[in-house]
Amino acid sequence: MKGLREILGERIRAGISEPFSEEHIKLIRPAIRIIPDDRPVPNRLHSKFGGVPLIQEGESWLRTTRGKPYLFILQIDLEEVTSYDEERQLPAKGILTVWHSPSYWEDGKVIYYPSKAGLVAADLPTEYYEEQKRAKVPFLKRLFTKSNHFKLFPERRIRFEIEYHCPSWDSLQMKLFHLQNDTRLQDLEIDEKFIDDYCDEGQADHHLLGYYVGLQESIYELGIVSKGRFPQRFTEDLIHEGLQWKLLLQIDSDKITEMGWVDWGKLLFF
Predict the structure, then answer these.
(1) Tally of CB atoms within 10 A around 66
(2) How confident is the model at residue 219, as a pLDDT?
(3) Is the pTM of this model over 0.90?
């Protein structure tokens, strides 16, 4: 029986022209797909979207440098994902909690607790109760009442699956290939069926590790290492600096989790 990696390799050879197909196959990497559903979360230590996160006893709800409470996105019990972590890139135990600023798109936090011992459910910030009161105010009056943009996302249980990714054709990995082999993106031929098979636009793509697919040809690592996301000239030094940043987590906009990022975009954590 063919494995998922072999199936992806066959699709790449059938759908992407040479020499690009072999480069994509060489760069295939495992990822861990995160699949939410609306079943009850069995206990507070379980992996989940939304709800109330675990924190160390004595800590309070995470806040930005401006004092605003972060939005809690996701909690991962690493013991649940270790069997899917083929390259052993993540710690085998502990808890990850993932947070995002309610007002600044490039401000996210990932907190790692090496042990579950001593972790307790966080107390909700006062802004949560203020928003609850505000929701009861008549609509016209609410228009003139300041919102603090805090939201507690509904709790959603999650499960995991292993999957395999290749980098997108406009990624830094392929920019390096073009530079070293004197090829051009315009020379790349891609069969529409490969795009349909590999990029299922109808399903939210939450995953740990692997690769992201950029929106509108964005290369997000460059936002970390340079002032402009679209440099006039790609040099090997710039590309290698960008490639030091590895994707940890991608969170899509998703109706199941009731999370929507700007114009139905993605959150990426490196």
Answers:
(1) 9
(2) 82
(3) no
